[in-house]
């Protein structure tokens, strides 16, 4: 998926084809956030003026690049998870055995399709935390990119949350679902307030 | 730019190269928002259950597709505007005439670099309005995509606003700058509240 052109991806997103959809867009938002954290690090590390934060930003860069790889991979994972759910629903349901087998496959696919966007939420949340560091300590000349990073990551987090809600709703295993929904709420809890704080820090520096 | 692969774009974003940067990411966020509005329209139009909203969603689709084309083009426009500012700063400043010519070119380039992200803000704001319609009237099966659309468009709007602030700050022509900043504030004014309202509509439908 990530080897597709931006234009081809957007054409697919806009079309009536079921994938790519919002899950893929969420992963791209997160990946853009991670990439922009990396950009601020790359334009801060090695500059005399910022020598005091160099070690910390090298650590941030390693983390943001790791998250970028993970989030980029999630564009395709979202498609696979969605296709598996659709594939399960398409199974035959003539006999009782077929019905039971189909129901099992749907439930198994829904678990994967709940965990996949939750993992995206987790990664986006981590990007928000890294954005906060670079907004505070990064090169002032590119500080707006820290602001774009936090907004993109937050949009990715909340977008992906919608897919967790949808798929968790269909799960029969309520313990499994509740555990995921609980983690999701903890990821979302202070994300909005932190994002606003980072945005205000950046806005104050660019104005 | 839009013909580049997603991966290549993200690599460029993360690198220490000055472009692409947050402006390009903002345009992609807006374009993903427009594309997702189109997707919801495409999966609603032609369905018996939604025949009553068909005419309205056909109109929304025409608008969202127009905005998608505009926003996709803005990925490259952001690079061009940035390069023009950098090019102007790089002009010789030996003689008084050179200094004056350089200052003029910087100011002219900054005007373009203020208007370009403002146009992106305007397009993202329009996508938010369209998201509100599809969140209310679109096919329930893909309603989460309306939620992702509004979050992406709002992230694009606020991201692009940072570039308006930065470039307007450098303008000597304060009337020009103030007019842009005033329009920007009116675009931002109720965008946050509207985005939350649309997100809550979608969240209630998926839960």
UniProtKB/TrEMBL annotation, chains A, B:
Gene3D superfamilies, alphabetized: Formiminotetrahydrofolate cyclodeaminase monomer, up-and-down helical bundle
InterPro entries, per database record: Cyclodeamin/CycHdrlase, Formintransfe-cycloase-like_sf, MthfCyhylase
The Cyclodeaminase/cyclohydrolase domain, residue ranges: 5-185
SUPFAM superfamilies: Methenyltetrahydrofolate cyclohydrolase-like (SSF101262)
Protein name: Methenyltetrahydrofolate cyclohydrolase
Organism: Methylobacterium trifolii
Encoding gene per record: fchA
